[in-house]
């Protein structure tokens, strides 16, 4: 079966994402002595917290490269430095993917599913409120959300995240 240029383009781009994941795993093993996907218990929880905080910090550093403050006159974007901060953020994001055992293929697949869902939400007039759990506020159509509307009490929810 012949492959179209689009098939080849997607495969090349996919290989790039796969390479990022494999290189990040090697970095973690060689520089720090562990593979995030092999962590368990408290070590895993601490790693998730640390990577989340590091990711947030890198995104904050990215924002510092932009003149975003409405009370200031500067409207600059320091693109080179901003790109560097995004690459730093990517390291921590990939670590978070690996610690929950999500590889590049699964990330790609889940992205495509979520993109399709987000597009449908926009077509349907998404307001950010409707279709969410009344307790934890998570979207009821998102994968992994265990909340549901109570079939006996309209407007009330059965929520795995907490009860009200």
Notes on the protein architecture:
This protein is mostly helical and 164 residues long. The chain has two domains: 5-126, Orthogonal Bundle (Helix Hairpins), CATH 1.10.287; 128-164, no CATH class. Helix content is 56%, strand content 2%. It has four helices and two strands. Strands 1-2 form a two-stranded antiparallel sheet. A hairpin with a 7-residue loop joins β1 and β2 (157-158). α1 crosses α3 (79-99) and α2 packs antiparallel against α3 (79-99). It is globular and about 55 Å long. The protein starts with a helix and ends in a 6-residue tail after the last strand. The mean pLDDT is 89.
Summed up:
The protein is mostly helical and 164 residues long. The chain contains 4 helices and 2 strands; from the N terminus they run H-H-H-H-E-E.
Helices, by number, come to 4
Give the second-level CATH assignment, the architecture of the largest domain.
Orthogonal Bundle
Q: Over the alpha carbons, how many angstroms does the gyration radius reach?
A: 20 Å
What is the third-level CATH name, the topology of the largest domain? Helix Hairpins
Query: What is the total tally of β strands?
Result: 2
Q: How far from one another are the termini?
A: 56 Å
* Poorly predicted residue ranges: none
Structure class = mainly alpha
Helix content: 55-70%
Shape: globular
> What portion of residues belong to β-strands?
under 5%
Mean pLDDT: 89
The run of helices and strands is: HHHHEE
Largest sheet: 2 strands, antiparallel
Top CATH class of the largest domain: Mainly Alpha
Number of domains: 2
Give the neighbour order of strands across the main sheet.
1-2
